[in-house]
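Run Malate dehydrogenase through structure prediction, thanks.
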Amino acid sequence: KVVALYEETISLNSTHNAKVAVLGASGGIGQPLSLLLKNSPLVSELSLYDIAHTPGVAADLSHIETRATVTGYMGADQLGAALKGCEVVVIPAGVPRKPGMTRDDLFNTNATIVATLADACARHCPQAMICIISNPVNSTIPITSEVMKKHGVYNPNRVFGVTTLDIVRANTFVAELKGLDPARVNVPVVGGHAGKTIIPLISRCTPKVEFPADQLSALTGRIQEAGTEVVKAKAGAGSATLSMAYAGARFTFSLLDAMNGKEGVVECAFVRSEETECKYFSTPLLLGKNGIEKNLGLGKLSAFEEKLVAEAMDELKGSIKKGEDFVTNMK
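Sure, done. The structure for Malate dehydrogenase is below.
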């Protein structure tokens, strides 16, 4: 009985003692993401970092009646302090797309930002789970990995490209078309996180759904270009921030649940992979205490999906190489 009580206390404590950092916490994604993390009982300390406005964001969030303590850090000289002791680091930092831009157009600015932040993680919290939101994810994950390697602290089971918004969108759009509750729909999305590298596996949707070929093709296209739909609707005022914050929080909570010992937690993410000929690829992952417990792989695909995977390979490989080359050529 004492042992059981002790174990229960341990699990209760561990559930509530995660220190999470948000790098880019003052931005369009960073602020609502930080709000959602502050609202969660899974987080005990929230460390907010950005190059501007963080003291204000932190002061504001600190008044919310949940137990996470909030601290703001501003400027490069405070980055190390922001990361000290963090178990999970979520990185939405960078610039958003404007109309007419692809995610790859963000490369020059965001590659440098992500490399700088990954370098700080390697120095100050090398064991942390790193969740990258900054686009282009297809390149920023290879960048993060190569920077960690330079420091000799790279663990492929702890570096994640957050593609969750693709899954969230797929679930929502399928639910709308079929009159289902979106909370009960689950569509795995594999590949990468840009345009045609986004591959929704509608054939593996739960509950099972079927669409005629033309509707399936249109639905797939809408999921792939959903980010651009928001960029256009915002008409120059940015890209998806609120839905991205929701998706980033969803992924972070899944990771924290798994780290706390919850079993059967599965999320898709863009990670180092042996599942295809691509060095990095998103597939469903079983999460555990140490990050990726098991890569569940591509699984069975329809002929339509097989074709989508084949057509995504060249673009994906190019984006990955672009990220790796950036680190190789870094000063």
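DSSP finds eleven helices and eleven strands in the chain.
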